TrEMBL record, chain A:
GO terms for biological process: lipid transport. CDD domains: SCP-x_thiolase. SUPFAM superfamilies: Thiolase-like (SSF53901). Keywords: Lipid transport, Lipid-binding, Transferase, Transport. Coiled coil: none annotated. Pfam families: Thiolase_C_1 (PF22691), Thiolase_N (PF00108). This is propanoyl-CoA C-acyltransferase. GO terms for molecular function: acyltransferase activity, transferring groups other than amino-acyl groups; lipid binding. The keyword Transferase applies.
UniProtKB/TrEMBL annotation, chain B:
It comes from Pseudonocardia sulfidoxydans NBRC 16205. This is ChsH2 C-terminal OB-fold domain-containing protein. Pfam families: OB_ChsH2_C (PF01796). SUPFAM superfamilies: Nucleic acid-binding proteins (SSF50249). InterPro entries: ChsH2_C, NA-bd_OB-fold, Thioester_dehydratase-like. Residues 50-105 form the ChsH2 C-terminal OB-fold domain. The lineage of its organism: Bacteria, Bacillati, Actinomycetota, Actinomycetes, Pseudonocardiales.
């Protein structure tokens, strides 16, 4: 088995650009990743996307001369990009391929007018449960249980929008107050507009290969991928907790770490504010019921004990579904190389990426990927 | 094109009360709100079962944005049917019932629909 490293990463800018095609977005990400990794060709490509049309992978790759190699498209909801990364890593680890490109891409602005509604051949979609409402259910329950306050929910949005002030690729950024976040338009009680990720277009890519000890290679210490178990009254947790907790345990064990608190910097799936709070608890970064307080008191801010989403996260950097996981990965690679500029977590040696995608009724998420990475 | 309605099927039992017609696992007793061929929890064999009409609100929200085929605002709740599965249901009104509120299934609506019974 080969030790695996990330040799290069790249992303497009993230934003709402219906007039820019996926070829351009993908080229922006892939050309940067290939330049970062060096000139050797890639032996195979895994592409993650959710709503792009059939054939999109070959369509964008032919435009940059990547042909005659195995190309595999994967769909795992919001974890599609990190699923492509997980499969690329395994292909290198097992020796199946040498250098592999993982690409995530999505154009949400031409697919949806507003919130995503789950597939309407599934009960939740047919009953009108837009995705913000699914997360709102978790937030309502947390508020009822005294596990979070409205101000603590809003603090996640304040923090991540402020982090993005230092990320030139982010879709949004800004200095908001808790009151401003809470006063923004209600989307699904208790989640307000500024607690919801935007509609985003973008692409992100990583070149993965055998570890050679190069000065800019970021080591892949452990990767795990799971689908969700049935979610219902058997679980004592809100939707999306158990799948993250179990996938993280797999990834931390693969990485030889005892706990998420051994990690210096984290990018998590904050599609909605409550998502970051539940995830930081599920990862074990903070104790159960402490996620909201951690955001409010700066524990999860840049400069805090456990910085979360220095890029601005999905809330502020943006959330082009298939690209998101690889955008998170790119951020952690830059952090571990010390290349993250004004949002750098000083001295970061170990980083973690968590992506969770859902929407299938009665399951605790369609897929979760957790990856643990190590500085050169 | 005929599309199979995936929502939980509400039937009126001989006692006159509406019930969700689903299945229960013969191996692990998991209640399931849908006529699936095997247990989603363990893969075990299932038999037809009916659940409700009463239950308790696990959580709820009011959707205030446009969603295809719906007029906002509308209220949704996850309801744990007594000795039954957790189902997503509509609730009348534009304020969410509190967690723990007792509710009862209503018959005749295309969506699973509950009323507060105090």
């Amino acid at each position: 088995m080969n030790a695996v490293a990330v040799h290069g990463v790249g992303t497009s800018h993230f934003g709402r650009v219906p007039g820019t095609d996926l070829v351009t977005l993908a080229w922006n990400a892939v050309s940067e990743a290939l330049a970062d990794a060096g000139p050797e060709p890639v032996d195979a490509v895994w592409v993650g996307t959710v709503f792009a049309p059939a054939g999109v992978a070959q369509r964008v790759l032919r435009a940059m001369g990547i042909t005659r190699v195995p190309v595999v498209t994967v769909e795992n909801a919001c974890a599609s990009g990190t699923t492509a990364f997980a499969e690329a890593c395994e292909a290198v680890r097992s020796g199946r391929y040498g250098r592999v490109l993982a690409l995530g891409l999505e154009q949400m602005s031409t697919a949806f007018d507003g919130a995503i509604t789950p597939e309407n051949t599934d009960p939740e979609g047919a009953t009108g449960l837009a995705l913000p409402a699914l997360y709102a259910m978790a937030a309502t329950r947390y508020l009822h249980d005294g596990a979070v306050t409205p101000a603590q929910l809003a603090a996640v949005s304040v923090k991540n929008h402020a982090h993005a002030l230092h990320n030139p690729r982010a879709q949004y950024s800004g200095r908001y107050t808790v009151d401003e976040v809470l006063a923004s338009r209600m989307i699904a009680d208790p989640l307000t507009l500024l607690q919801c990720c935007p509609t985003s277009d973008g692409a992100a890519a990583a070149v993965v290969g055998p570890a050679t000890g190069g000065p800019r290679e970021v080591g892949v210490r452990g990767v795990a991928l799971r689908s969700g178990a049935p979610w219902g009254r058997r679980s004592p947790h809100v939707w999306g907790y158990d799948i993250v907790h179990e996938t993280a345990a797999d990834a931390l064990a693969a990485a030889g770490l005892h706990a998420a608190t051994d990690v210096d910097v984290v990018e998590v799936h904050d599609a909605f504010t409550i998502g970051e709070i539940v995830t930081t608890e599920a990862l074990g970064l903070v104790a159960p019921g402490e996620g909201g307080k951690a955001a409010e008191t700066g524990v999860t801010a840049l400069g805090g004990a456990h910085p979360v989403n220095p890029s601005g996260g999905l809330l502020s950097r943006g959330h082009p579904l298939g690209a998101t996981g690889l955008a998170q990965l790119a951020e952690i690679v830059w952090q571990l190389r010390g290349e993250a500029g004004g949002r750098q977590v000083e001295g970061a040696r170990i980083g973690l990426v968590e992506t969770m995608g859902g929407g299938v009724s009665a399951l605790d998420g369609n897929a979760c990927v957790v990856a643990v990475l190590e500085a050169p | 094109m005929t599309v199979v309605d995936p929502r939980p099927r509400v039937v009126v039992a001989p006692d006159g009360a509406p019930h969700v017609a689903g299945v229960r696992c013969q191996a692990c007793a998991e209640p399931v709100a849908y006529p699936w061929p095997a247990c989603p929890e363990c893969g075990g064999p299932v038999v037809a079962a009916e659940f409700g009409p009463d239950g308790v609100v696990w959580s709820a929200t009011v959707v205030r944005i446009p969603v295809a085929g719906r007029t906002p605002p509308y209220t949704l709740a996850y309801v744990d049917l007594d000795d039954g599965p957790r189902v997503l249901a509509h609730v009348d009104g534009d304020s969410a019932p509190a967690v723990g509120t007792r509710v009862r299934l209503l018959a005749g609506a295309p969506d699973p629909h509950v009323e507060v019974i105090g």
